[in-house]
Amino acid sequence: MKRLLILLAAFAIHPATSQTVHILPPLPYATDALEPVMSRETVELHHGKHVQTYVDNLNRLIPGTPYAEATLEEITMTADGAVFNNGAQILNHIIFFDGFAPEGSGPDKPTGALGMAIERDFGSFAAFQSKFNEAATAQFGSGWAWLVSDPDGRLVIVTTSNADNPLRDGLTPILGIDVWEHSYYVDYRNRRADYLAAIWRIIDWDTVGHRYEER
Ligand code: MN
């Protein structure tokens, strides 16, 4: 499962203490590779500062707790409070940043099983995009918009607040878009709708499609 392989790459075991040490996975592209949709400044701040802070916080919080050796997925599904907030935000951002590729480097819409499932469950790719952006725009305050699969493979659009992740509701994230202000304010100021209109140009449909096939 690709999703699990990503998570395996997100931590290491400290050789002296056998403590899990979470690490920030490197981006699969250069920090300026998503321009002009997402600027280098945004990627460096968002990935290099915001997400790194969640990683540092989690590593400081978990020693001596039941989560000392837990995976990010386990933390996301079972923790609460600060451990949940920091752990889930790392997982959310891995899904987010791993789901992008430089504009024009791959298919501009989903193909294969995901493409067929989107047509089946939303009518068309354009109808799905419109419904997704409507939900993401309407999410009040900080949070996320998700394309998720239910256990039967049906696709649904959901939004979550703050650090919450659909895994807690038994749903598998296929695509996750951050609508916290830090994800778009540098490039789009307060215009969340403009950010959401542009973001489709950098979605990596190969990676996102694999998540659906291997869910
Ligand atoms: Mn973020």
Report on the architecture of this protein.
The protein has 215 residues and is α+β, with helices and mostly antiparallel strands. Helix content is 47%, strand content 13%. The strands form two sheets. The protein has a three-stranded antiparallel β-sheet. Strands 1-2 form a two-stranded antiparallel sheet. Strand 1 and strand 2 (20-22) form a beta hairpin. Bound molecules: manganese (II) ion. Manganese (II) ion binds at residues 46, 50, 93, 178, 180, 182-183.
Ligands bound, unique: manganese (II) ion
Q: How many distinct helices? A: 9
Shape type:
globular
- In N-to-C order, the SSE pattern is HEEHHHHHEEEHHH
What is the average of the pLDDT values? 94
Spatial extent as radius of gyration: 17 Å
Structure classification: alpha+beta
Main sheet specs: 3 strands, antiparallel
How many β-strand stretches? 5
Q: Strand portion, in percent?
A: 5-15%
Low-confidence stretches: 1-8
User: Strands across the major sheet, in which order?
Assistant: 4-3-5
Helical residue percent band: 40-55%
Q: For the terminal residues, how far apart are their CA atoms? A: 7 Å
